[in-house]
Amino acid sequence: MKNLTQSPAWLALQAHYDDIKDIHMKELFAEDEQRFDKFSIHANEVMLDYSKNRINQQTMPLLFDLARQSNLSKWRDELFSGVAINATEGRSVLHSALRNRSNQPVMVDGQDVMPKVRVVLDQMRQFSELVRSGKWRGYNGHRIKSIVNIGIGGSDLGPHVVCDALKPFAQHDLDAYFVSNVDASDILETLKKVDPETTLFIIASKTFTTQETMLNAFSARKWFLDQVGDEKAIAKHFVAVTTNIELATEFGINKANTFAFWDWVGGRYSLWSAIGLSIAVYLGMDHFEELLEGAEEMDQHFREAPLEENIPVVMALLGVWYDDFFAAKTHAIIPYSQYLARLPAFLQQLDMESNGKTIDRNGQRVDYSTGPVIWGQAGTNGQHAFFQLIHQGTQLIPADFLISALSHQPLSTHQRVLFSNCLAQTKALMLGKTHAEVLDEMKQQGFDDESIEKISPHKVFEGNKPTNTIIFEQLTPKSLGSILAMYEQKVFVQGVIWNINSYDQWGVEYGKVLAGKILEDLNVPGDVDGHDSSTNGLINYRKKIYFNDSNESTLD
Ligand code: F6P
User: Fold this and answer.
1) pLDDT tens, residue by residue, 39-67
2) 213 lines ligand 1 (CB under 6 A)
3) 292: left (phi over 0), alpha (psi -120 to 50) or beta
4) Cα–Cα distance between 276 and 261 in angstroms, integer?
5) Dist. CA 206 → ligand 1 center (Å)
């Protein structure tokens, strides 16, 4: 689509926006008692209630027209069948093959990739069972008690969110730690908690060249060798997950302890691959496979459900509706689950690294927004932090609320209180409170006229703030797999509509190159002047405070 904003579907939506923008959702609810039934859909364990959105009966058909106009079904077929839709890197995008539990082949360049996917799954099963059963012993015969995943971005966020979310399924005598930041405090604070005799380091890096991961891995290796003193012991305590087996071997990791994946798995889509090794060890391979099954169920739903009943499609289109027509700048993710506290961080990379693009697939600058800022934190904590702005601030902030019907922790009334808070917020955001309602309320509470006049405007809530509620029976490997895949496919659909490549990340690469050049300048004595004045000034300021031309040691 050359001119998306001039296309018939877009123009129809623009006209519809002008009609609907001042309609309050509470009127729409009052007019139609069936609104919840009409605007809620299921996919196996997951239910999406999207009735609290700024939509009427005309809106969704117009959004579905936009999806059809973008050839969504053609792109979806290409995604699943291994066409190299990541055109700027010449790669297929096949994380769905990693969770393909059927016997169906998935072809890339004329070859079925499923046999090698299964080989790695078997290797993960064998290894994780050895570690979990205690048959895998450390260099001096102790069983493994701690695993430390060293990775960043997709090599951290995916396994991290899953291990946190599914803690109730973890083996009680194993601890899982995640080190990602190149800030030495991350690795050092983690190393304080573990013992070299009982620790397994999983170096997770698609490229095995990422600066942060490699520095953390070398620091962990030095810490280990300083205490153990025997290079041969590394084989028992360091394993790697990477597409770059050669570099992992150079690092000193036994080839047999290296877990492969492939260039058709994007970093932020890689938790389903061997990057999920920490999940398999911490939660067990059966649970890892249930996670894959949940994701596959969502993939099936995404492939087969008509647009009208398709959860990722509906969520994507609602996102486009707010982003491009209501000019919403951000989108909040509020899981009402402490176990899902890391979900916003995971979705930040998934969504913003995928769709944070200004150049479309034809190489043209887009004249529309391609995605909001994703942010959020667990409820109810968020209520006592930023909800004020969502309720009464000047910006429109669409939000996803996620909640399970059942908790793993049936402690007194906690889950019911959590649930009631979640629903109370979406209700308040939708309904708002009028000035007349505030006046009545204040009169009943016995305020005098002067106070009522002064304070009442501050108590008005406009309401009409859109939310999705995503509800599932319980947070299990399966439901979590479905939820994460649901967001992945939502991001894909939006990329199709915006006509961008959701699977490259050149913007991140640029910073990596510049960091290398600045590091070189920090390593030499004297002032530098080869950058802009701000960058020069900051480098020189740092060097005045501290300069050391040998490598600064973080571990001495
Ligand atoms: O942040 C950029 C990025 O390339 C991500 O896409 C990726 O998840 C991360 O770096 C880590 O890369 P690697 O797994 O190669 O260390």
Assistant:
1) 999 999 899 999 999 999 999 999 999 99
2) yes
3) alpha
4) 11
5) 7
